[in-house]
Structure formats: C-alpha cells, structure tokens
Amino acid sequence: MALVLHRESVPAAQERARDWAEIQERMLVPLYETVYDRLEVGAGTELLGLGCGTGLALMLAAARGAAVTGCEADTGRLALARERLRQRFGAAYGRRTKVLPGDPARGALKGEPARYDLITAFDPVVPAGDLGPALAAAVRAAPRGSTVVLAGWGPPERCSTSRVLSVAARLAEPRGKAPEVRLSGRDDLEDLARAAGLRPDGSGRVSCPFGYPDLASAVRGLLSTGLFDAAAAATDRQQVDKELAEALHPYRRSDGSVRMENVFRYLIARRP
C-alpha cells in the first residue's frame, strides 16, 4: 500500500517557511521557467497559483509581465510570499500581484472575478486528495478555455530523492513493514485533471536537480517540504535528522556539497 505523507503543523513554522524559501523552493525553478516558456506567459496573462509557497513562481511570472494571484494555506509561507512580493513589486502589490490566505475550496477566491486564464499547481508535495477540492473550486472561478498546469514527481527511477524519501516512510511506521513512498503514479495528473472537469492537452518532463552547498543545508531543505513530519511524529526529530543525513551520504561530493538528480512531470489541461 502506498504511503502519502502530508504536511503537519510544527512549532517552528516560520523558520521552516524560511528554509523553504531560502533553500528548497529554488530547486523547482527549471519547472516554472519551462512551463512559462511553453505557455508564453507574459503581459496579458492572468495567473492563479495554487499552493504558491513563498511566492517564487509568482515572482517569476510577474517579472514577465503577468498579473498574479497566489493562494497559500500555510501561514508561514503565506507571510513570506506577501513580504517578498511587496518588496519586489512595491505599489503593484494588491493590484498586479497578491497572495490570498487559504485555498479556493475554503473560500479564498470569494469575491474574486472569474478572470484567470492560467492556473498552476506546481507543488509536487501536495497529495492529489488534498489538491482536488481546491483545484475544482479554482476551475469554477476561471473562464472557459483557461489553461491549467499540474506538476508532480517523475518516475522513481529518475528521481534520486525517492531513495531518501523512503527513510520518511520507514520511520513513519516503525512497527510494521516499511511501505513504499508513492511519489507520483503514471496517470495521477491526468486523473486529477479529469476529476476537476478538465481536458488533458499535453505534458512534459523537466530535470530539477536538488543541489545543496552542504549536508546541513540538504537536511534543512528536505525537512522544509513537510514530507518528514509523519516520521518525526512517529519517532523524534533527532532520529529523523540522523537517518536523513545518513541517506544523503551517497549524494555527497568531494567538496561537501550534495546533489540529487530528479525529473518532474507537468500536465497541461484546458477548461472546456
């Protein structure tokens, strides 16, 4: 049986949000840029980012001239996203760039006009069961013909990080056989799109290596994803840190840096 690991609240939510912003989020820049290039995101694009994290994907789209709105349920990430967008775009925040608390399924888009011609759900950590209601609500708030982009992990054999994430699965259920960490099924993105009333219309794969200057940064970056929360709850943070560091050793380089090769997949879908 596949194990899906969810984010859970932690006392140091703001610290973890900063680790995500400063260490981990940038690993997905090749995915963001590839999608934006393919869809020619720029002036005239009205973009809605679901689970926008600390706002990096929004900033990249806004820098191309797009009007961007993000939704983020994590309060630590939400605060940082707003801070970064205000610092980067100044008076344009609130007009051409903004971040809303919560998700569409819980009313984050209440009162928003149905104008978004591009909706993105880039965060591969969010389980499909969690994203489904938010995606369906966002699609209802978009005009017909809008484009939706969903992203997920590529095949486990193409993702070095899958071997490291198996530590999270094993520690999460220490009394039984370690279940498989299911990064992404072959048709997960298509199934999610169809469940939201969308029509799949193309896909692609992008290389997104995870690179860190040292082992400590790698541990902090991976913990910031929330994928190890269940493991920490089942054991303790010290045990998770220790075993995560050990799992990363095969990916250490002679200069002390850490690098794992990964492939991410994205799906383009349309609202009929």
From TrEMBL:
GO biological process per UniProt: methylation
Organism superkingdom: Bacteria
InterPro entries: Methyltransf_25, SAM-dependent_MTases_sf
GO function term, MF aspect, one: methyltransferase activity
Assigned keywords, A-Z: Methyltransferase, Transferase
Domain Methyltransferase: 48-140
Pfam families for the chain: Methyltransf_25
Record bears the keyword Glycoprotein: no
Protein name (database record): Methyltransferase domain-containing protein
Organism this protein belongs to: Actinacidiphila guanduensis
